[in-house]
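Structural prep section.
Before we set up the soaks we want a predicted structure of the protein with pantoate in place, mainly to decide which crystallisation condition to try first. Input record follows.
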Amino acid sequence: MDQATSVVELRQYAQHWKDHHESIAFIPTMGNLHAGHLSLIEKGQSLCDRTICSIFVNPMQFGANEDFNHYPRTLEQDIKYLEAIGCDLVYLPTASELYPQGLEHITQIAVTDLTDNYEGEHRPGHFTGVATIVLKLFNIVKPDVSVFGKKDFQQYRVIQKMVDDLDLDVEIIGSETTREPSGLATSSRNQYLDTQQTTAAALIYQTLQDTARRIEEGERNYKKLEQQAFENLNQAGFNTDYFCICNSDKLQPASSEDKKLVILVTASLGKTRLLDNIEIDLW
Ligand code: PAF
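Run finished without errors. Recording the tokens verbatim:
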């Protein structure tokens, strides 16, 4: 696997492959790779001739009260995983490479509407940081395809909207969430759960499935379902930020007319904040 650290090098690799009519899949990550990330790389490999993965803990998407410095960094292990899976190139920039003037005066990409609620509300500025770095990376690589995990459903939709609104020439692919046998969504944050919490955490997906089943069976009182799920999780020891039944295009509270839904949930166990969601198609 090749490695690049500068913008110029990354551009050169990508251009070389394009000159040879090879298509490029790009998977941006913040490292600490796990089965979920590797499934994104595999998806890219199934769609394109070349796969590029970036590993960059992006300071711009962390809030002042969020611990950028303690974000897990496991570069050696990440590189081994990427080599084993046959990724073609890993991009490992420094912050000064991507933000040579610092963060204070940089142009910001603020994706509208979809960022108002949920993670956008709980983490002000977060999606602006995500959209800005992703657009920068897209502009360097100019990939044909970029793969995002649907576990971060709001992020996936925000990137899709940015691409649509700004007429970017890249296809965004949403990749299904990988799960532990218990149903718990694979996440870097799972490593912070103790054994008891790991067992308890499975309740998030069970509650999502249970709520989805009741909607599929015809229940349309979404407020009641949300409240029941919220209370159910909190009684089991979670501190739930939100459990929202939304339409999957606008991410607004769903009405009984909506056919494509997604339930978004974020709940903490101790200090660990867990995100998950489930899609429902009522057509
Ligand atoms: O999902 C992530 O890991 C990050 O938000 C991303 C897309 C790599 C941007 O920094």
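Observations: The first strand starts at residue 2 and ends at 4.
Flagged for discussion at group meeting.
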